[in-house]
Design a protein that fits this description.
This protein has two domains: 200 residues, Isopropylmalate Dehydrogenase, CATH 3.40.718; 135 residues, Isopropylmalate Dehydrogenase (3-Layer(aba) Sandwich), CATH 3.40.718.10. The protein contains 13 helices and twelve strands. The longest helix has 19 residues. The protein is globular and about 50 Å long. The model has no long low-confidence stretch (mean pLDDT 94).
């Protein structure tokens, strides 16, 4: 199979983790005979420094034309004083919007061999759920304004925006445990009331999926105290951002979390959930597994299920064999390069 993939390393540790992800992807192509063609683009701080723009129109157009985008991470403290529209994160948000990547999928998996979560093992053991986060609407993309003594951020949603991601979440519930939880704040927010109404209407087409509802404040507690009750969580942009980062406490590290962003006409982007971690830049200590697992989600999106399963097995084995970075293996940590090399070698030898 031939695929054209846009590569965006980004800022901070982005180039280091992307190097390992591509190493693993090259091992997959060698083992299974695929051809992946890569082209690198600048987004975020790297693009600001060179183009005085967090993302250029050419980069956006080329990403739209690709079969998929593999993204590292963006951000650096030196841009904190830059105005809205000229910050590294604005490049990522604009790319998501222009590609219409409205559905973000974040798996939360408790891997065997990791014991550094502050939550007792008996509560999180075998946790495995998905967070479906609406990605192009809500308060992040609403009209904004600020004066010296006043500021506002508008949050709005349409029925169509809610309906399209709800259908994807219900479809995936059918091949899992047939349980979906909508997280909202419908006792206060009008947008949440619309979410609850529309999701209930969509659920009528999926009678085999059990639908329940949680307010966001209760959901943040339940994810920590009883994560095994969840299978598929559906929520809006801001709540999904909060819940997915909070859920990293279950896995033991934010560095383990991948994500997929899916849009219309099969457009897609895959990226780790963590930030650019500029303090670790160039130190060879960053965890590449979130980026590598994002490659696995991309393979799954391409229908390469055997390839995805082998990659996941390689990651699980690296964790069990303690070939992992200091965020999950403080006693005898491996470096970024070691982890990538181990997973690559496992793939080639199995």
């Amino acid at each position: 199979m031939n695929k054209y993939i846009a590569i965006i390393e980004g800022d901070g540790i982005g180039p280091e983790i992307m190097k390992q992800a591509l190493k693993v992807l090259n091992a997959i192509t060698k083992k299974y005979g695929h051809k992946f063609y890569y082209k690198k683009f600048l987004v975020g701080g790297a693009s600001i420094d060179k183009e005085n723009n967090p993302i250029t129109d050419k980069t956006i157009n080329d990403c739209i034309k690709s079969d998929s985008v593999l993204f590292g991470c963006v951000g650096d403290n030196k841009y904190n004083s830059y105005p809205t529209g000229m910050r590294p994160e604005d490049g990522l948000l604009k790319l998501r919007k222009k590609m219409n990547l409205y559905c973000n999928i974040r798996p939360i998996i408790c891997f065997s061999g990791i014991d550094n979560s502050p939550i007792k093992k008996k509560y999180i053991n075998k946790s495995d759920f998905l967070i479906y986060r609406e990605l192009t609407g809500g308060i992040y993309f609403g009209k904004k304004g600020r004066s010296e003594n006043y500021a506002y951020d508008y949050c709005s949603y349409s029925k169509k925006e809610i309906e399209r991601i709800a259908k994807i979440a219900f479809e995936n519930s059918l091949v899992r445990k047939k349980k979906l939880t909508l997280v909202d704040k419908s006792n206060v927010l009008e947008t949440s009331k619309l979410w609850r109404k529309v999701v209930h209407e969509v659920s009528l087409d999926y009678p085999n999926v059990k639908l329940n509802f949680l307010y966001i404040d209760n959901a943040t507690i339940q994810i920590i105290t009883r994560p095994n009750q969840f299978d598929v969580i559906l929520t809006d942009n801001m709540f999904g951002d909060i819940l997915s980062d909070e859920s990293s406490i279950i896995t033991g590290s934010l560095g383990l979390l991948p994500s997929a962003s899916i849009g219309e006409n099969h457009k897609s982007m895959f990226e780790p959930v963590h930030g650019s971690y500029p303090e670790a830049k160039g130190k060879n200590i960053a965890n590449p597994i979130g980026c590598i697992l994002s490659v696995g989600m991309m393979l799954n999106h391409f229908g390469m299920y055997k390839e995805k399963n082998l990659l996941y097995q390689a990651v699980k084995n690296s964790i069990l064999c303690k070939v992992s970075t200091e965020d999950i293996n403080k006693s005898n940590p491996s470096n970024t390069e070691d982890v990538g090399n181990y997973i690559t070698k496992y793939i080639l030898n199995h």
